[in-house]
Design a protein that fits this description.
With about 230 residues, the chain is an alpha/beta fold. It is built from seven helices and seven strands. About 40% of the residues lie in helices and about 15% in strands. It has a seven-stranded parallel beta sheet, sandwiched between helices. The radius of gyration is 16 Å and the shape is globular. The termini are far apart. It binds NADP nicotinamide-adenine-dinucleotide phosphate (NAP). The site of NADP nicotinamide-adenine-dinucleotide phosphate has 27 residues, from helix 1.
Length: about 230
């Protein structure tokens, strides 16, 4: 069966991605920062594997890569993320900045780069970044006091877009996703969409994206998102 690797699969959108792929018979590898807190993931079925991964810790990435070895991965979903808090411009601290860029930007990029050969061995050959409308400057999206999150997701898009261009000759397909405003812990369970609705739409977008469209930024609704 095809294999999907999902970071942050213990709750929220990551858990729902895992649930839906497992229900369709995929082999699912999920990561969690604290595997002891991932009972909902473990309950998804027999062909699910849980691996520890803390995106803020380089040693944790190295351990994850050792455990994956040269296993083919059809789809990588870089989903783990933090919201960076809310602060006025003058309140942005180097510590908060570094944490959010590390988890939302650097870690997914490092993970994708390290897994290039695994993705090349897969059939689907897709690398997916769970981005956000907050990354979009052209959409006119404006939420005050969201400096760190916006910058971290816009930078993630920039890196993912570059990877998509660089790796297109290898047949690898890069996709950036806008989940919509979804009821998860990150949004204090406020929002227009359930995790089921958001993830169903994002999975459809993943499945439909061809190599010719690699590097696209697309919403759960299948609509392209302005950069
Ligand atoms: N919900 C929305 O409306 C929305 C909208 C746009 C984009 N997004 C994006 O969607 C993704 C998933 O968010 P969500 O809504 O499902 O939020 P969530 O319920 O808060 O889940 C966040 C996930 O990221 C993991 N994570 C946080 N810090 C980590 C670290 N240092 N290392 C590894 N994993 C870490 C969390 O693990 P722990 O349980 O260990 O903390 C959890 O699994 C994020 O990238 C988010 O930015 C969400």
């Amino acid at each position: 069966m095809p294999c999907v690797l999902i970071t942050g699969a213990n709750r929220g959108l990551g858990l729902e991605f895992a649930r839906q792929y497992a229900a369709e018979g995929w082999s699912v590898i999920g990561t969690a920062r604290d595997p002891a807190m991932a009972d909902d993931f473990r309950a998804l079925g027999s062909d699910v594997t849980l691996l520890p991964f803390d995106a803020a810790d380089d040693a944790s990435l190295a351990a994850l890569l050792r455990q994956l070895g040269d296993r083919p991965i059809d789809i990588l979903i870089a989903n783990s993320g933090v919201d960076g808090g809310r602060q006025e411009a003058r309140e942005v601290t180097p510590e908060a900045w570094k944490e959010a860029i590390g988890i939302n930007t650097y870690a997914p990029f490092r993970l994708a780069v390290a897994l290039r050969a695994n993705l090349e061995r897969g059939q689907h050959k897709k690398l997916v970044a769970v981005s956000s409308l907050a990354a979009s400057i052209g959409s006119g999206y404006a939420v005050p006091a969201q400096y760190i999150y916006r910058a971290s997701k816009a930078a993630l898009n920039a890196l993912w877009r570059n990877l998509s261009v660089e790796w297109r000759p290898l047949g690898l397909i890069g996709i950036m996703l806008r989940p919509g405003r979804v009821r998860t812990r990150m949004t204090d369970f406020q929002g227009d969409l359930s995790v089921e609705e958001s993830v169903s739409g994002m999975r459809r977008a993943i499945a439909m994206t061809t190599l010719a469209e690699s590097g696209r930024f697309v919403g759960f609704d299948g609509v392209e998102v302005p950069w």
